[in-house]
Amino acid sequence: MDRAQKEVVVGELGQIFADSGVVVVAHYEGLSVAEMTDFRSRLRQAGGGVRVAKNKLAKIALKDTPAERMGDLLKGMTVLAYSQDPVAAAKAVEAFTKDNKKLVVLGGAMGATPLDEAGVKAVASMPSREELIASVVACIGSPAGQLVSAIGAPAADIAAILTTLEEREAA
Question: Which of these, 86, 79, 88, lies nearest to 46 by C-alpha position?
Fold first, then answer.
């Protein structure tokens, strides 16, 4: 790899570190090509990506970024899993590690916050952006539903009373 290619790789990695909501670092030693392809496809489905790069180039790309402290994790055969959604990559990595014990999570970074292995698990357990939006919409819609039932309740009560009176007269 010549100097120009290395500069391109450092630029790409710098863009990943700058644009990603979360970056997870893991050892992938022992993963077969099929397993790595499965890992890549799971992250792609989650809206993220996977990048394998030389640790030295990744450390250069990390210099003067908020996630610079993550450079200590870059030792051995490492893979970077990233996504713009702050939880998607962590969830996809956790799901993959449940099925495949060869991928070992070392840690990562969420913006300027460094994460250890437990931190990545904690991020993975958080609700995703879509889940949060759904819960907010449900909270907004709930009072409206209660208002409709409160307005309709007196009419339903009157109808029930009238039905009861009719049944008594008929009897």
Answer: 88
Give tens-digit pLDDT for 69-101.
Answer: 888 889 989 999 999 888 889 999 999 999 888
How much is the pTM? Answer: 0.72
Neighbours of 9 (CB within 10 A): 18
pLDDT in tens, 143-153: 766 666 667 66
- In terms of C-beta density within 10 A (0-12 exposed, 13-18 middle, 19 or more buried), how is residue 80 classed? buried
Tokens of residue 77, six digits: 């055969």
107 and 31 in contact (C-beta within 8 Å)? Answer: no
Place of tokens 């908020």: 66
- What angle, 0 to 180 degrees and rounded to 10, lies between the N-to-C axes of helices 88-99 and 33-45? 150
> Can you tell me the distance from the alpha carbon of 66 to that of 18, in angstroms, rounded to the nearest whole number?
8
Strand, helix or coil for residue 40: helix
- Element spanning 135, H or E: helix 129-170
What CA–CA distance (Å, rounded) separates 9 from 30?
A: 24
Strands 104-110 and 113-116 come out as antiparallel
Measured between its terminal Cα atoms, the distance across the chain in Å is 97
Asked whether 53 and 13 are in contact (CB, 8 A), the reply is: yes
